[in-house]
Design brief:
This protein has 214 residues and is of the alpha+beta class. The protein has one domain: Metallo-beta-lactamase, Chain A (4-Layer Sandwich), CATH 3.60.15.10. The protein is built from seven helices and 13 strands. Pfam families: Lactamase_B.
């Protein structure tokens, strides 16, 4: 029996990216998802919840999601898992990208574990299945807790929108196909935390998201 997941959202960077703490209510063992920056704020939230952080998870390689990952790995002494290796070029170029956006201190990062479709990631007594959902970036992944009917989707899909595909490596048709063929079939009852903005459910997006209507 897996634990009961809890989540807390910490908006970070000028992009107001949803860095997410995910943890087990039973064990207080958790992970930091997409630490794009503002690491002092993230660490304060970890302490406020009394969590033991076991790993850092990355949904994809963009600066607002991964810019603080290498430094946080060093601070916490934990491994990084994700995204898919197709985003390696994004992670390698984080210092240059950060300089372009005026985000100081971004460091290139190589995960301790690249993820592929079908992998499982454990966080304490929680288990997440991995979907590879390219289109916003080539290596975007989605973390799915099937037991808890909950997903961390990064910038694949948002409440009322989908990830932008005008950045290098983006592909709109590929993104919509990944959402319709992989993400929506998880079930209408699955709630998700996106990389920006409010949470939603897959059912709500299937019915009302203008990008997903045929």
């Amino acid at each position: 029996m897996s634990g009961t997941p809890r989540a807390g959202i910490i908006p970070v960077t000028p992009f107001q990216q949803n860095c997410t703490l995910i943890w087990s209510d039973e064990t207080k063992v958790g992970a930091v998802v997409d630490p794009g920056g503002d690491l002092d704020r993230i660490e304060a939230a970890i302490q406020a919840q009394g969590l033991t952080i076991e790993k850092i998870l990355l949904t994809h390689g963009h600066i607002d999601h991964a810019g603080g990952a290498d430094e946080l790995r060093q601070r916490l002494g934990v491994p990084i898992e994700g995204p898919h290796e197709a985003d390696r070029y994004l992670l390698d170029s984080l210092p240059e990208t950060g300089a372009n956006y005026g985000l100081d201190g971004a460091r290139a990062v190589t995960p301790d574990r690249w993820l592929v479709e079908g992998d499982a990631v454990t966080v304490g007594d929680l288990t997440f299945d991995i979907l590879h959902a390219p289109g916003h970036s080539p290596g975007s992944v989605v973390f799915v807790s099937r037991d808890a009917r909950f997903a961390l989707v990064g910038d694949v899909v948002f409440k009322g929108s989908v990830g932008r595909t005008d950045l290098p490596g983006g592909n709109h048709d590929q993104l919509i196909r990944a959402i319709k063929e992989k993400v929506l079939p998880l079930g209408d009852d699955v709630a998700f935390i996106p990389g920006h903005g409010p949470t939603s459910t897959l059912g709500e997006e299937r019915l009302s998201n203008p990008f997903l209507q045929d």
